[in-house]
Write a structure and sequence with these properties.
It is built from 1 helix and 9 strands. It is mainly beta. The protein has a single domain, classed as Porin (Beta Barrel), CATH 2.40.160. An 8-stranded antiparallel barrel has the order 1-2-3-4-5-6-7-9. The N terminus is likely disordered.
């Protein structure tokens, strides 16, 4: 019995929060524009970035980001632009310097998907589950302060699912699972002992972030 009172209080508080949140959703109108900024972690499929026979380097995202701008058509359909990518520091790669000396260098790598996406929201409410598909250009770079920059380019198809938790008419929190399948190529062989220029930009991840909506429909 001693646990009954706290349980009743907790249940009443939960009911109060739910009623308040439901009132917010019922009162809110659709906004025209939506901006989301999310960060998270993920994994990539490329397991030999430089196409070398030894010392193979795995693409391993250290920071995943996802920025999207949408135009809301109605309660279900929206479309817009997406910028998703990841960054990685590749450490202690043995290279020959311009003066002919062997040395270990660190490289900064980034791989981005820039494209157009369409999203379908299944239901409106406190929680708004949705899915989306996107078509993208792949743009990436490998950079070292001494050796310069090398670009990688290609294309990808992506998609995912997510849900938003609405706090008000304008603000929400979103969690999203996203994945890309694609193909890309380096501008040239990364190193003299590289066997090719192909690069696999395919990746997947989970992000969490904020959503802001504005403008009446």
């Amino acid at each position: 019995m001693k646990f009954l009172f706290p349980l009743v209080v907790f249940s009443l508080l939960l009911l109060s929060v739910n009623i308040h949140a439901q009132t917010i959703v019922e009162d809110q109108g659709l906004k025209r524009f939506e901006l989301s900024v999310e960060f998270g972690s993920g994994s990539a499929l490329e397991n030999n970035m430089f196409k070398t026979e030894i010392d193979k380097v795995q693409a391993s995202p250290e920071l995943l980001f996802n920025i999207a701008m949408h135009v809301i058509v109605d309660a279900h359909l929206s479309f817009g632009f997406i910028l998703e990518g990841y960054s990685q520091t590749i450490r202690n790669i043995s290279v020959t310097s311009p003066d002919g000396q062997m040395k270990n260098e660190n490289f900064d790598f980034a791989c981005n998907n820039v494209g157009f996406d369409g999203r379908w929201t299944f239901s409106k409410g406190i929680f708004e589950p949705y899915s989306f598909l996107c078509v993208n250009l792949v743009s990436g770079s490998l950079q070292n302060s001494d050796l310069g920059k090398l670009l990688v380019e290609g294309f990808s198809l992506g998609g995912g699912v997510g849900t938003k938790l609405n706090f008000s008419e304008s603000w929400a929190v979103a969690i999203e699972a996203i994945g890309f399948l694609g193909t890309a190529k380096w501008q040239q062989k990364v190193f003299t002992n590289s066997t090719g220029t192909s690069f696999n930009p395919s990746s997947a991840g989970l992000t969490l972030g904020m959503v802001y909506r504005w403008g009446e429909i």
